Amino acid sequence: MTKPSLATFTALDLAKDQIADLDQQLLKRKLRVTQSPCDTKAIVAGRPLHAFCSNDYLGLANHPDIGSALAEGISKYGVGSGASHLISGHSLAHESLEKRLAEFQAKHIPEARALFFSTGYLANLAAITGLVRLAPQGGASIYSAKLNHASLIDGIRLASAQTNAMVTLFDHTQLNSLREALQQDKRPLKLIVTDGVFSMDGDLAPVNELVTIAQQYDALLLVDDAHGFGVLGKRGHGILEQDNIFSERIIYIGTLGKAAGVSGAFICAQDAFIEWLIQKGRPYIYSTATPPAIAHALCKSLDIIESEEGSERRQHLYRLIEIWQKEMQFSGWQKVASCTPIQPVILGSNANALQAASLLDDAGYWIPAIRPPTVPIGSSRLRITFSANHSEADLRQLMSTLNHIEQQISAKASS
Known about the structure:
By secondary structure, the protein is α/β, with parallel strands linked by helices. It has helices spanning about 10-25, 65-75, 85-90, 90-105, 120-130, 150-165, 175-185, 205-215, 240, 270-280, 280-285, 290-305, 310-325, 350-360, 390-415, and strands at about 40-45, 45-50, 110-115, 140-145, 165-170, 190-195, 220-225, 250-255, 265-270, 335, 340-350, 365, 370, 380-385. The protein is about 45% helix and about 15% strand. The termini are far apart. The relative contact order is 0.15.
């Protein structure tokens, strides 16, 4: 019996070559396996680490009351949903959560209605591709902040490919070019898309100004408040509450796996827009509904966010941010003026960022290096994030460690 000849496997060779190329450029990402609940102390590969890298801003991911609510949800609704929302997967738990989420934004969006998704990525894809389909083919324009999250960028790319929408990028710190472009735009549907809190720099979008621009030029404004929901505003309702905004033109996206501590995301907008997305939002129509027990647990999370406990957690978080901004000093590394739990430290090169992350790991800290394409070339960084479960002592010890590591790297570079 003759053996078959070995055929060329081009795709596999391409994969291996391109992974090797990423490794050579210091851009290859690696998974780390945690062996503990999400909290400020983590066990990774059997080692205890101080975690300053999660988006669990309020420290709710391991909250016992939310865990109990999840268990209660399983006892009431079982484990899976069994189908998409429009078939048989939409439970009382989903309906109750959506009503609560709409109440969070009712003072900021007229006739507010919410739609729950399994991830923020899906919510952004559904919102952008669905809304653009309101216009006739080629009749939509999308204006995207340059530093928007990948899920917004991918939603815009998909919408443009499907409908031939025109896409224009703008700098959220300089809005004159956005005004000028909109002034010349005669298309019937114009959609401005921005993060509320920019996830890598921690700065805020000028939402009040963007609302004014949207009103002036008859545009919709989509705000992805993934990193603001639960954190910003007196009651944790997000950036619209913090900026005291009320507008019928807002499409609000909130994430429930960050400050809310669980999983999922939602779109909140006027009832007519939500009804349209139920009819035409393909990621919603064709996805199996999130397990209803998750929605049940999220209702408890919302209770905590609005409660005195939630307020105390936000106040403690703001105190940590204040300490960092006032007291943290670097000799060469660049600190960013952020008023949010996201506090990046810019080191520039991939090599410097990886070296700093490695030395932090040796010192017992988990703060990954963030490199292109997540951030622009030449701006590799440590993305430090605070949680309400961090103590002031935790923070000051980190600050001391960072100063020591910066000196270490600087001395090595000059030797």
